[in-house]
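Hey, I was hoping to borrow your eyes for a little while. A protein chain has come my way and I'm curious about its shape. Take your time with it, there's no hurry, and the full record follows here:
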Amino acid sequence: MAIMALNPLARVPKPHLHFSLSIPHRSSSSFSRQSLLNPSRRRRAASFMASASLYHKELAAAKRAASLAARLCQAVQKAILISDVQSKADKSPVTVADYGSQAVVSLVLKMELPSESFSLVAEEDSGDLRNDGGQDTLKRITKLVNDTLSMDGTYNITVSEEDVLAAIDSGKSEGGPSGQHWVLDPIDGTKGFLRGDQYAIALALLDEGKVVLGVLACPNLPLGSIGNPDKDTSQNQTGCLFSAKIGCGTDMQLLNGSTANRIHVTSIENPADASIFESYEAAHSQHDLSSSIAQKLGVRAPPVRIDSQAKYGALARGDGAIYLRFPRPGYREKIWDHAAGCIVVSEAGGVATDAAGNDLDFSKGRYLDLDTGIVVTNKKLMPSLLNAVQHALKEQIQNAALL
């Protein structure tokens, strides 16, 4: 990798910078002198200050990496051609944007956070690109990566094809319960990306098996509400960046630069007033099971079906109240499909569990071992939701036995 006078900590302001990596901080006035006289408030203030100081650099680097990867993906989506699509062994579509996004995130994290113990658990590897017929695609990816890294003049770096291959392959880590591991889905919702619909660049950090921060870059998600016509949508802008850090809440801002705002899940308590998010693709989740759960809850609104972890972001800001994901039997969930989304929702006041109500465990490697499916909602709705889920699953088993 040819790097000339690279100092990732040096920042030269650029008037054409299109996205902001400033991390909003809580004003010191939030903890008044009077508040600090109260011992319990003083302890909460101290806890907040301690949490705010942790992972500060890591979150800034994650926001920068995901934002740059999103810019690459946007450029590809605008001019997508059938030749952009390759096939993996499992026949799922992979685009040059998948590879380019993973390479950009890997390179940026390594430059912003130099470490000999860098570990990345990610979806793609370079096997197809190294095979005969992959050379042209690799050239395109390398050009995209270099164009993206040079976008705002911050990185004085030119990467080679071998650098790109190495960056992609840095995602082969197995993760686990010890140390720190970045978790990346370079394009979550590839089919949505190919259709021109929703997708997300999802990046999270595990520390000793726990998700401690997460970023969702959602280039096609409107700033206004999705799936909720009663919510104000006057800000008709597109492209959202969600970020969350353990103990510090969840923020949302525009991808192309804006002040970040704190967001929260909906406070709806009556299941009948809830709306449900689920996967757009029927192959990704059992829509019939979700429908049965909705009926048992008395949900009146039709389901909102969108691709990717953009659902987590939309739920975190209160667009909907429930997210259901029930893959077909035999499917194993990958940690990169949920790590970033889970902390974005949980720090916004929500809860994510498996169908039995167990916390999601990201410490066991590249896969989530869980009971049947994933359910996400606010704390008030979760008991009734889990009850409906268990009844629907029991009914499904009984119906299957009769066939």
Observations:
- The domain at 271-402 is CATH 3.40.190.80 (D-Maltodextrin-Binding Protein; domain 2).
- The longest strand covers residues 210-222.
- Residues 1-37 have pLDDT under 50 and may be disordered.
